[in-house]
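Tip: read the tokens left to right.
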């Protein structure tokens, strides 16, 4: 039986250290503050009504595969799933998780908006509204925030999704 060359053993130790260090570094980048993005994170933001800027009518969907789907315009009950625009990076997905988490959608006691079913769509002419669906760690929540979409967390999320969708 031959002995393993010293340089090969050293290389294995070096590679193991790099792999462990890399996982520690990437683990430290998890967000938001003690609440890392779950592996099953998915998001849908539907903005309707006569909003301006980033809050113009659009529907954004990000699945656990990090494929961003976007449709511009009013969403109706018969609107098909938007077409794929691009696959976002892990860093972009983590940033979306931060922004979506900041809306408080997963918090059952959140006074902003009201809980609705997953398939809820605002009626035509009902005024501005943002419908946020957020899933992760086996939890699913859908909330609607009606009225002028002045909620800064929703506006920040819409802004980021619009930018990732390459919409000017």
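Filled-in amino acids:
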């Amino acid at each position: 039986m031959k002995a393993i060359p010293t340089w090969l053993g050293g290389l294995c130790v070096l590679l193991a250290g790099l792999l462990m260090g890399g996982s520690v570094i990437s683990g430290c980048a998890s967000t938001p503050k003690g609440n890392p993005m779950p592996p099953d994170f998915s998001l849908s933001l539907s903005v309707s009504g006569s909003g301006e800027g980033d809050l113009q009518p659009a529907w954004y969907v990000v699945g656990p595969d990090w494929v961003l789907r976007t449709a511009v315009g009013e969403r109706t009950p018969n609107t098909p799933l938007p077409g794929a625009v691009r696959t976002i990076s892990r860093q972009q997905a983590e940033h979306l998780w931060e922004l979506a988490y900041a809306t408080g959608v997963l918090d059952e006691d959140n006074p902003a908006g009201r809980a609705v079913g997953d398939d809820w769509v605002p009626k035509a002419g009902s005024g501005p509204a943002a419908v946020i669906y957020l899933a992760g760690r086996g939890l699913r929540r859908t909330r609607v925030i009606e009225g002028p979409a002045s909620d800064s967390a929703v506006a920040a999320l819409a802004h980021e999704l619009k930018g990732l969708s390459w919409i000017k």
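The chain has a mean pLDDT of 74. The first strand starts at residue 42 and ends at 48.
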